[in-house]
UniProtKB/TrEMBL annotation:
This is Probable membrane transporter protein. Belongs to the 4-toluene sulfonate uptake permease (TSUP) (TC 2.A.102) family. The lineage of its organism: Bacteria, Bacillati, Actinomycetota, Actinomycetes, Pseudonocardiales. It comes from Saccharopolyspora gloriosae. Keywords: Cell membrane, Membrane, Transmembrane, Transmembrane helix, Transport. PANTHER family: MEMBRANE TRANSPORTER PROTEIN, TRANSMEMBRANE PROTEIN YFCA.
Length: 246
């Protein structure tokens, strides 16, 4: 895997980002979330100029792989309603990204991660009605466009779905939703050539995570893995908050 030529990022930082992306992709395929919640706080700490475009592009690639592997379990109707709700969320998020300073966006990342973890541990389980799915899609689009973390609202509204159906439905939603978010970021003028380059450089790490997920799935305790992922995400959010406030 080639190291970036950009002198502003050391080889050690790039290696750390590769590890985080690899683990995040593995979690995304195994439990249906993890890439955004794990990678976004680390990127905000080490390379904030790459957010949110790099995570959005990597998420599109990883979720596309899940759709190819488990697409037969997809809830097409639920995905469509969620994407319809996502449209105004993406539009509002693109405006915020264009207007907010980097520090405010970093604190938003930390807050979204913390709220997502706490809501998951709290056990809030809304019934996935059409209205609830659309509202979750709106919130997800807003959060994903501003912070690259759009998973918590969808994970809450779809948590009643079984494992393969949950993973395939969320992945299809995030694949198409990430494309919508990326288009919104492009229109807002916040996607740089540097972020595109690093998305390509980090793609092999994401691919390794996807390839490792299948053979490791049989050995993973999903409940423990989910809790570990949330603890790691929360630690990243806390570290990011401390850095921004000090």
């Amino acid at each position: 895997m080639p190291l970036p030529a950009d002198a502003r990022m050391s080889g050690g930082v790039f290696a750390a980002l590769c590890v985080v992306v690899l683990v995040g992709a593995l979690l995304q395929v195994s439990i249906g979330f993890g890439l955004g919640m794990l990678a976004a706080p680390v990127l905000a700490l080490l390379a904030p100029e790459l957010l949110p475009a790099v995570v959005v592009l990597l998420a599109a690639a990883v979720t596309g792989a899940v759709v190819l592997l488990e697409g037969e379990h997809l809830d097409v109707r639920g995905t469509a309603w969620a994407l319809l709700g996502r449209v105004p969320g993406v539009a509002a998020g693109a405006v915020l990204v264009a207007l907010l300073p980097a520090r405010a966006l970093a604190l938003c990342v930390a807050a979204v991660v913390a709220l997502g973890v706490l809501a998951s541990w709290w056990g809030f389980t809304p019934h996935p009605t059409r209205r609830a799915v659309m509202v979750a899609g709106l919130a997800s689009g807003l959060m994903a466009t501003t912070t690259a973390i759009g998973g918590p609202p969808m994970a809450m509204v779809w948590q009643r779905l079984a494992g393969p159906r949950l993973r395939s439905t969320m992945s299809a939603y995030f694949l198409l939703g990430s494309m919508m978010t990326f288009a919104g970021l492009c229109l807002a003028g916040v996607v740089t050539a540097e972020s595109l380059r690093y998305a390509v450089l980090l793609a092999p790490a994401a691919a390794v995570g996807v390839l490792l997920a299948r053979p490791l799935a049989a050995h993973l305790d999903l409940a423990r893995t989910r809790n570990l992922a949330m603890l790691l995400s929360l630690a990243g959010a806390a570290t990011l908050t401390a850095q921004q406030l000090t």
